[in-house]
User: What shape does this take?
Amino acid sequence: MTELLEKQASPRPAARESRAEATPGEPAHLELAAVSLRYGEVRALENVSLRVPRGSIVALIGANGAGKSSSLRAITGLRKVAAGEVRLEGRVINSRDTQEPTHALVRQGVAMVPEGRHVFPYMSIKDNLLMGAYTRRDKAGIATDLERVCERFPRLKERFHQHGSSLSGGEQQMVAIGRALMAKPRLLLLDEPSLGIAPQVIRLIGRSLLEINRKDGITVVLVEQNSRMALALSSYAYVLETGRVALEGPSKELMTNEHVKRLYLGG
Ligand code: ATP
Assistant: This one.
């Protein structure tokens, strides 16, 4: 799948490699340092550390209840961490003493594509996309970005004035990604983008994510139960098991790891 995706995404490998590497001394785009997160007595994350270099695609995989969504809640400030720190470009955004509100993160270049997509059913595709630009005032830039989203997902252009409710699951996912791009993010967080989507549309979404990363230089954090897709797209991945990082490494290596193959790639 990687090769297929790479061929179709008209890659620029050299640029990709250089962006994926962290410059020495430069803070990671996003970092979790020994983060623990609780829901009352439930320990959802225990001492989780992960690093997302600027310009990379990093995957977070794991089974149901492993702590993937909780990691995103820690990053987006939806839940205060019990211990440790979340840092965005070196600045603490969630710790015992700090909890940056979610809406403030949008202005700092963070956009989220939530699980379940949350497309507004009675709004047109165009208005759904424009919702993503609600913090922006640059009208000309918004119009250009709307055009770019339509070039990236031509199907949305065809259905520009239709209601969100009339779309297939895959098309809704395109709207959700397009809406996040309308915020002009530097960091894109995606929660299970492949959920409930047909395989050929998953490939299309995958290609789009590679393009978004390579052509636009947007850092991507991909939370997925579809480990095959996540490892194919990412350069580095973390495997979460019962709230802890059980394994981490370059995605290519994890693909051939026996534990990962047995538990997450169907043997
Ligand atoms: P899934 O893929 O099923 O969404 P996940 O990997 O995203 O799973 P989390 O949703 O982060 O896992 O859940 C981690 C742990 O925290 C689980 O044991 C879950 O039951 C628990 N949990 C999650 N949300 C809450 C909540 N609001 N209240 C109490 N426990 C919760």
Notes: The radius of gyration is 18 Å.
